[in-house]
Design a protein that fits this description.
single chain; 163 residues; alpha+beta; OB fold (Dihydrolipoamide Acetyltransferase, E2P); four-stranded antiparallel sheet; 2 helices; 10 strands; elongated
Length: 163
């Protein structure tokens, strides 16, 4: 039986490749993946659909939207630059993020919490195994990037830490 992470890796590999269909059979289990498949009935006649007419009056409208996007992108670039100086605690696996040891307990850490590299900052549950995630650095939690109960991917940033 394949693990969820292995299936996700297969999906990524198929998605990045030029193949349109992939079938994997192992010990009685079968995984079939298709991409770019358009279901067309075999008996349906080919139809010509004319391209929509381009209206010149509609072309200038996107310009103000692009200007607003450029203005909004400037603060985002500054924030990204600030985040570049911070250590990211990432998920070592695909699973469910939990910020506390139990639903009725306090969170391990929150923004402003001081941590050491051995401090447990959260739990990631994968296949009924609860894995404690440690801070890996000494510092202060600047931001918690995910919510308790949220699904996380391998390598996804969970916390930003000012070391």
């Amino acid at each position: 039986m394949l693990k969820v992470q292995e299936i996700r890796e297969l999906i990524k590999l198929v998605d990045q490749s030029s193949i349109d269909e992939f079938v994997f059979e192992h010990e009685g289990s079968t995984i079939k993946m298709k991409k770019n498949a358009i279901a067309v009935p075999a008996a349906a006649p080919a139809q010509h659909v004319p391209a929509p007419a381009v209206q010149p009056a509609a072309a200038p409208a996107p310009a103000p939207i692009q200007q607003e996007t450029a203005q909004e992108a400037a603060p985002a670039a500054v924030k990204e630059q600030d985040n570049a100086n911070l250590h990211k605690i990432t998920s070592p696996m695909v699973g469910t993020f939990y910020g506390s040891p139990s639903p009725d307990a306090d969170e391990y850490v929150k923004a402003g919490s001081r941590v050491t590299k051995d401090s447990v900052v959260c739990i990631v549950e994968a296949m009924k195994l609860f894995n404690e995630i440690e801070a890996e650095v000494d510092g202060e939690i600047v931001e918690v990037l995910v919510k308790s109960g949220q699904l996380v991917e391998y390598g996804q940033p969970l916390f930003l830490v000012k070391a």
